[in-house]
Amino acid sequence: MLSSEPKWALRVLKKIIEDVRDGVIDSRNLNRSSDIENYFKSFPKNLQKDESVNINPTPFKEINLKQRKAAPKTTQKSHQKSKAVPRPRVTLAPRKHNFMLPATTKAQNLLREASSLDAGKFTISAAFVLRSFVELTVNEYLDSNNINKTKSSSNGNPIEVDLSKKLELVVSDIVSKDQSKNPELNGFRKQIMNKKSLVSIQSLNDFVHNRFQIPTADALRVGWDSCVPVFIATYGSV
Are 216 and 198 in contact (CB under 8 A)? Predict the structure, then answer.
């Protein structure tokens, strides 16, 4: 049974424990009742018991020091439904695109697969789709804009340049026609054209041919997003 206010009693107990811990009191200097009485009298005023207040004894098991917080006032705003936080994309490409649908069936199929393929579960497949759509798009841009994509071989016969060179031709042509597009292509240069990138054309090739190299889903999604300005330049914006 406790015949004092519980929070006050808890503060007194805390004071005693701290004094024992700090060596202020021990069984040698508090071995008489008078010593104990004087010890309690030395407590600060806020730890002295107020004899004028009568408190009914309470069983220890019924003491609850936790107080319920008052329920927040209901306001009109609290009844409004909060906007749902968009979930992170798991697919290689988003469901909706800000470029026009490609004209060829193969490009349309690749785009549909990119928008439905879980890059986390089917990472290698997503890498194949990304590389295929980039290559198809680059060739489409060069052909549509009548840009020569060949070079002379050692014997003088024209041969088609590699994909890395085609990327350079596309980016150069886009910027030459509209300088304002130059900053938008920085991501494409950094992610797709930079050989050290995790999703460069060289890395995407390695995912196909190197039996040990495996891409990451996040890198592939970033790679796709960095290509969007080239997709828009090729197929037109929505």
Answer: yes
**Whole-number Å distance between alpha carbons of 215 and 198:** 7
What's the predicted TM-score (pTM) here?
A: 0.64
Q: Are residues 113 and 223 in the same domain?
A: yes
The predicted-structure confidence for 164-212, as pLDDT tens digits, reads as follows 999 999 999 999 999 999 999 999 999 999 999 999 999 998 887 888 8
Residue type, 16: I
What is the C-alpha to C-alpha distance for residues 5 and 3, in angstroms, rounded to an integer?
Answer: 7
Separation of alpha carbons 216 and 214, rounded Å: 7
Q: What is the pLDDT of residues 85-138, one digit of tens each?
A: 778 899 999 999 999 999 999 999 999 999 999 999 999 999 999 999 999 999
Residues 130 and 212 in one domain: yes
The structure tokens listed for 157 are: 């016969």
Dihedral through CA 34, CA 36, CA 41, CA 46, nearest 10?
Answer: -160
Distance CA 179, CA 104 (A): 29
Asked if residue 100 lies in contact with residue 236, where contact means CB atoms within 8 angstroms, the answer is yes
Residue 237 Cα to chain centre, angstroms = 29
Residues 6 or more apart in contact with residue 126 via CB below 8 angstroms: 92, 114, 117, 118, 119, 215, 217, 220
Report angle CA 185, 89, 217 to the nearest 5 degrees. Answer: 75
Residues 47 and 137 in one domain: no
Residues 118 and 198 in one domain: yes
